[in-house]
Design a protein that fits this description.
Blueprint (H helix, E strand, L loop, with lengths): L6 H25 L2 H26 L15 H30 L8 H29 L4 H7 L4 H29 L3 H30 L5 H11 L7 E11 L2 E9 L6 H18 L3 E9 L3 H5 L19
Helix pairs in contact: 1-2, 1-4, 1-6, 2-3, 2-6, 2-7, 3-7, 4-6, 6-7, 8-9
């Protein structure tokens, strides 16, 4: 996985979650706190999340084959989707179940110093992991808000780790609140309430990530800025006079397909047009390096046809629907 995939953030989160999970299960064994059990499962699920993201990044590096001519870049989207649906949801539903059982059958927390000590340790470790994820994300985020970054990032790993770490920190605070209230009031129901809050939080995060990764799996176009760069790179003002229409599609976080119908003068020879297309492809790759698969179809531009409006059914690089020839 390339640096933009956030490998450093994933490894930091994996190390933190494994240590935290072990500490939480020890605390549960000594204290009987359901919040600790739910948080332990959450941290274990988070560790699985990071492992899946690393596996997806490795599989995405495979070379293209005749059966998969555009490569395996979308493996990263698939594994991110698995993380959002399976692990987050399983962790959330387990927490909801544990919270319900705790409220239905409350019992006093024993050895309070175990859960409190582990929660403090976990908050420190998760803060370190979250800080690493923020630093890695800032390298790509630019001037975008955090909401825009999560919604429009083409590499799924960093949004997953960011939301996971944020959820973990908020969940730890909820767990600490539930344990503290249970200790102060002597009523174990508060521990169960804290556990249910953790479950609701995890389910909400799962829904957000599922929506965003589903969009990536369906296939997203390049960002508006990249599309403008590509259009500007295609037109040379000599042989290629304009872009008639264009489509872009992310084959993976760092691989973009570009297909466009371009206008060329009617008098140009085939050799001139071929040379102009080669030059345009070189300019596109220089302007947007991730544009690795490019199909440019030359055509004769017609003002009369253009005046009729854009044809939303047009397929760049493919056959033109009957009646729409220029």
């Amino acid at each position: 996985m390339s640096a933009s995939g956030g490998t450093k953030a994933i490894v930091a989160a994996l190390a933190a979650n494994l240590a935290i999970a072990a500490a939480k299960f020890v605390a549960f064994a000594f204290s009987g706190s359901s919040s600790m059990l739910a948080e332990g499962v959450h941290s274990l699920a988070d560790s699985g999340n990071q492992a899946l993201l690393l596996v997806g990044g490795k599989k995405a590096k495979r070379e293209a084959t005749p059966q998969h001519p555009f490569g395996y870049g979308r493996e990263r989207y698939i594994y991110a989707f698995l993380v959002s649906i399976i692990l987050f949801s399983v962790g959330g539903m387990f927490a909801l179940y544990e919270g319900y059982e705790k409220i239905k059958h409350p019992h006093e927390i024993e050895h309070w110093y175990w859960p409190v000590g582990v929660l403090v340790f976990a908050i420190i470790a998760e803060t370190f992991s979250f800080r690493t994820a923020i630093k890695e994300s800032n390298l790509l985020r630019g001037k975008k808000s955090w909401k825009e970054f999560v919604r429009h990032a083409k590499a799924p790993e960093l949004p997953v780790v960011l939301l996971e770490d944020l959820g973990a920190l908020v969940g730890l605070i909820l767990a600490l609140g539930g344990v503290s209230l249970a200790l102060l009031t002597g009523d174990g129901v508060w521990d169960g309430i804290g556990t249910i809050c953790i479950g609701v939080l995890l389910v909400l995060i799962a829904v957000v990530l599922a929506i965003e990764t589903k969009s990536l799996l369906l296939g997203e176009a390049a960002g508006a800025e990249d599309e403008q760069k590509i259009e500007a790179a295609i037109v040379d003002g000599d042989v290629v006079t304009r872009v008639i229409h264009m489509r872009t599609l992310h084959l993976g976080p760092e691989e973009l397909l570009v297909a466009a119908k371009i206008a060329v003068p009617q008098s140009d020879t085939g050799a001139e047009i071929a040379s102009a297309i080669d030059a345009a492809e070189a300019r596109i790759r220089e302007a947007v390096p991730i544009a690795r698969v490019i199909y440019l179809e030359p055509d004769i531009y017609s003002e009369a046809e253009a005046a009729k409006g854009a044809d939303r059914h047009a397929a760049p690089g493919g056959p033109t629907p009957p009646g729409t020839e220029h």
